[in-house]
Structures are given as C-alpha cells and as structure tokens.
Amino acid sequence: MSATEKTRNDLGVSRRGFLKSTAVVGAGLAVAPTVLAAEASADINVGIIGAGTQGRVLIEQAVKIPGIKFKAIADIWDYSQRYTSRRLQAYGHETNVYTDFAEMLEKEKQNLQAVIIATPDFAHHEQACACLEAGLQVYCEKEMSNDLAKAKQMVQTAKKTGNLLQIGHQRRSNPRYLLAKHKLIDEADLLGRITHIYGQWNRSTAASAPRGYPEKYPVDKAVLNKYGYEDMFQFRNWRFFWKYGGGAIEDIGSHQIDIFPWFVNGKAKSVQASGGTDYWKEYETFDNILAIYEYETPKGVVRAFYQTLTTTSARGYFESFMGDTGTLSISESPGQCRIYAEGHLPSVDGKHPWTPWVEKGYILQAKEEEAAAEEPKSAADQIMAIYKSPAPVAFLFNVEVEASYHQPHIENFFNAMRGKEKLNCPAEVGYETAVMVLKANEAVKAKKTLEFTEEDFKV
After folding, report:
1. Which helix (H) or strand (E) holds 357?
2. Which of 357, 350, 348 is nearest to 396 (CA)?
3. C-alpha–C-alpha distance, residues 405 and 423, integer Å
C-alpha cells in the first residue's frame, strides 16, 4: 500500500461505515415479505446461471460474504461447469451442476433463495423472469437485455412477484461513487452548476480481439444450436453480435452512462451518435461509438459526451462532471480519481473555500507539483495572460480504496435480502439505463438525433 493510500485509509471514511450512512441510501425497493425469511437463517443458498468469466468474478466476491452458500451451477459449457464447481468446492461449497437452467430451477428451487445471472444479455429475460416467478431473488448482470420490450417485462415480473431484482451496475454501490454523489455533489455542492459531462472507456486491440477457447473443450454443436448459437466463435464473442448483445457501448459503456443522470439528478432528453464497425470486421455490432446526450436537470441543461473505442487504451476509462466551481474526475480505477476546484474561487478567512470539507474528512488536498509561475516578459505575454484561466486546485477523495469493484454491489443485494438495506440498482433503474444505451445504437443506425419521451422510460 502506498503512503498516500495509507493516509486515505487512516484518515478517511471506512467503506462499511460510509455505506451505513443515511446519505448513501439508494433508489431501492421495499423489501418483499418473502425476503425477510432469509434474515432468520445464517445462510443464503444461491445458484449461479452462467459460470463463464463474469460469473466467476461474481462468485469470487460473493464467497467472501458470510452466510452465502452456492448450491447449484447452470451453464451450457461443460468446461465452465467443471472449472467453477472445482473452484467452489475449494471454498467449501458443494454444488449440483446442470446444463439447462430450467432443469436447475425445477430441481433446486426449494433449496435456493437467490440466483446470480451472468449469461449473455439476450438470455437474461427468460432466466430472470423464470427465477422471479419461482420465488427467488435475482442478481442479474447488466445489460438487463438487448431488447427493451424484454427488459420491461423483467421489471414488471419483479413488481408482480414482489421479489428483488438487482441489476449489476456496480458503480451504484462503489464507495467512491457514493461519496462523490451524496457528499461532494449533493451535500457540499462543490461542482456548483454542472454543465457538461465527459466519459470514455477505451480498450486496446489486445483486449478487444476475438476470444478463443481450449480447442479440446468445445461445446457440442447440437448444444450450441439448441441455445441459439451458430458456432463457438459467436458463443465466445456474443457481445459483438446483435442477436446476443449490443456491442461496446452496451458491454462497457452502460456502466458509465448509468451514472450520468444519477449524478446530475436529471432525465435524458436526447441522444445523437456516430459509430460503426470500422476495425473489427469479424463483428456485427459497432466497435466504436461517439455519443452526445442531453439531460434536463433542476439546475439547467447538461450535455454529456461519451466515447467507447476498441482500438486504443489511451487514457483508459473514467467519467468527468464539469461545473462552474469544480470538476470531478472519477473511475473504478483509483488513479483517475480527483476533484478540482476552479482557480478563481476566493479564499475564506485566508483559507481555501473547500477547507470545511477537508475538515469534515470528505476530501484531502493533493500534494502535486505546481509549475513555476513566471512574470509576463512582453506585451504579448501580458495580453495572452488575460485568456488563461487560473490553475485549478486538486483534491483527493478521502475514502478507503477498494480491492474489488463488484463486492459492495453483491453485498448490497444480499443485505437487501436480509432486510438491512434497499437495492442500489433495482430493476426500474436498470431499465432506464438500458433505454439510454440501446437508444445510442439506434441513433447510429438512424444517423440522426433521437428524442427521449416519458413513454420511453415507463414500465
């Protein structure tokens, strides 16, 4: 641990303490009566549908939570079945293994209380609705679906059954994002009027290239066809085919677009976008998108520019919220997190105006090298100085650094089952994000600005 991180951890807000703060209560749903039974039991029995890479990521975080016991696995690939069952066995979880999720549900629903779904987007609807109807609580990876009508039905099924449906937009439970939203923006109002947002997620060609598989462990072609895949290439690269996913903006962009209206307390009004399948000719969906969203907020219009690229990793991934008194740069990657005070802000009693928030423990002033100030040396220099903005002052988020991006969101789901919290990303919120993301793909195809209406978000 670096000295800077140690300082943040020693002085900062602990994650568990912060998550209990009344300021971080999410949008949430009332806890269903059927869920409260889980509180009386020390264990929650869980099934996993989709034991591939993302499923394993979620499992690795869930097994760290006391009282979570995996009892069943469903995956159409026997390679993933074997790998995941062995990993769970090493953690002391004995699981039954199935190829078909419906068979798992039929045989295990009396033994299970919750299911985690980490399958390709097109399969979420059928699986989530079936599990909800069977009386189980559901954690479903984003995107809810690559079909808005099916995503809407997921919301309706959760409402009808009264069961929980958490969507995997994990930033909504991330301590950095909760601090930024509830403390720095809502309480301290450090950004003033937010006017613009910029976000990006750039991936290199190495990270975006087609995924292979161990050639001696293919999925049987009959099994592939039964579950809607033509071949192993589509199965392994489903995100980049319209039938199964929605491309880069749905795969990674939705995580970031999800927080835009949340942070500015706004509603999406329109989107225009440009993109194409310009580099990866093996794929169907767009391998790059540049999108501009417009949001209506209580403080006025906010315009957001978002890009996702698959040919460069330049500057990684982050989101910036720019206001007239400050700018917030935030990411799951801690090195990208800063909040900058505009240089023109006047001091108060000889101190920086953000000093009260340093004293409250929300932020720490960054010790960054400053360029040496130079006196203008000519008339031209003096004229040009008029056009220069005063240098901003950088601060750090004073919150504990997380080792895992997913664990707080998984914890929130299981705490909601136990009646201790509300969901941070319930189905209604996940649906609104799906609308914004899928509409960007539509805007690229239509080559025009698309307006959002109240009807678009109605469930």
Report:
1. helix 355-359
2. 357
3. 17
What tokens does 23 get? Answer: 């300021």
**Angle made by CA atoms 375, 376, 381, in degrees to the nearest 5:** 160
Cα–Cα distance for residue pair 269/366, rounded to 1 Å: 37
Are the C-beta atoms of 331 and 255 separated by less than 8 Å?
A: no
Q: How far apart are the first and last CA of the chain?
A: 46
CB atoms within 10 A of CB 452: 20
Distance CA 86, CA 89 (A): 5
Segment 249-285, tens digit of pLDDT? 999 999 999 999 999 999 999 999 999 999 999 999 9
Q: How do residues 404-449 score in pLDDT, each as one tens digit?
A: 899 999 999 999 999 999 999 999 999 999 999 999 999 999 999 9
187 to 219, 295, 323, 360, 405: CA distances (angstroms): 53, 21, 15, 12, 25
| Cα dihedral 64/66/67/71 (nearest 10) | 10
> In angstroms, rounded to a whole number, what is the distance separating the alpha carbons of residues 56 and 436?
28
Strands (E), 148-228: 165-167, 194-202
Question: Dihedral, CA atoms, 396, 397, 403, 404, nearest 10 degrees?
Answer: -130
pLDDT digits (tens, 9 = 90+) for 8-19: 344 445 555 554
What is the reported pTM?
0.90
138 DSSP β-pair partners: 115, 165
d(CA 220, CA 237): 17
Q: Which amino acid is at 84?
A: T
CA dist 174 and 333 (Å) reads 11
d(CA 142, CA 161): 21
Confidence of residue 374 (pLDDT cuts 50, 70, 90): low
Name the phi and psi angles at 106, rounded to 5.
Answer: -65, -40
User: What does DSSP assign to residue 287?
Assistant: S
Q: DSSP letters of 112-159?
A: -SEEEE-S-HHHHHHHHHHHHHTT-EEEEPSSS-SSHHHHHHHHHHHH
Sheet holding 165-167, edge to edge: 96-98, 68-74, 44-49, 114-117, 137-140, 165-167
Q: Is 9 exposed, middle or buried (0-12, 13-18, 19+ CB in 10 A)?
A: middle
pLDDT for residue 70 is more than 70: yes
Query: Of 67, 52, 223, whose CA–CA distance to 141 is shortest?
Result: 52
What are the backbone angles phi and psi of residue 72, rounded to the nearest 5°? -150, 150
Q: Rounded to an integer, what distance in angstroms lies between the CA atom of residue 255 and that of residue 203?
A: 15
